Amino acid sequence: MLYLSNLIYHPTACPTAILKAINLELAPQKLGLIIGPSGSGKSTLLEILSGLAEPTSGGVFWREQELLAEQLQQLAGLVFQFPERHFCGGTILEELRLGHPELGSERVRQALSEVGLEHLSLSAQPHALSGGQQRRLALAVQLIRQPNLLLLDEPTAGLDWSMRRQLVNLLAKLKQDWTLLVVTHDAGDMLAIADSCWTLNHGELKSVDPAILKAKVQEPQPAA
Questions:
Q1: Which residues contact 185 (CB under 8 A, 6 or more apart)?
Q2: Global pTM?
Q3: Phi, psi of 22 (to 5 degrees)
Q4: Which of 106, 95, 154, 100 is nearest to 128 (CA)?
Q5: Which residue from 168, 174, 116 is spatially nearest to 147, judged by alpha carbons?
Q6: pLDDT in tens, 143-178
Q7: DSSP SS3 for 31
């Protein structure tokens, strides 16, 4: 169980808090979806959950244990928005082994299989892959670390309809084994697989029923 208790992030240089008394619960092997516009604090929240930033006050708990930033770095795997921009390896194998030079080929192949890329050559260049394959590789980079929590920032951004659908299907499969928290400005693709939803506006988080959001998305649009 991921549990956030009265989490506040208020840098001294900011007149108001970026995150305001955030409370959230997400059960294991579920997918949580946070929806909010640019500047709402979504990416900042993921940075705190991945241990890249520390909250001003409040706590992050996993299985009732409060965690420090260093522990969150071990617990969580963060897939950035447009993760392909962060690739450093010249080949798929190099990318997956960055920071883990001891990894054997079996573990590497297992990670690729989990994201549907087992057919690719380990010597292929990450930047030569399609957009959808690059997102899958970015997921494999995190899965190979065996995190308890997967954090995804706008995972379908910039992908065409077909690639978005494939990625959503993959995330639905991954939540059978992992806990996932996704942030996005456009919930449409993800609502079908979301177990819990929240909206984030001006740093304030509010729970919302996924069924209500699905109904809104499916409402017929008025004729022009």
A1: 35, 36, 37, 38, 42, 154
A2: 0.88
A3: -80, 125
A4: 95
A5: 174
A6: 888 889 999 999 988 888 888 898 999 999 999 989
A7: strand
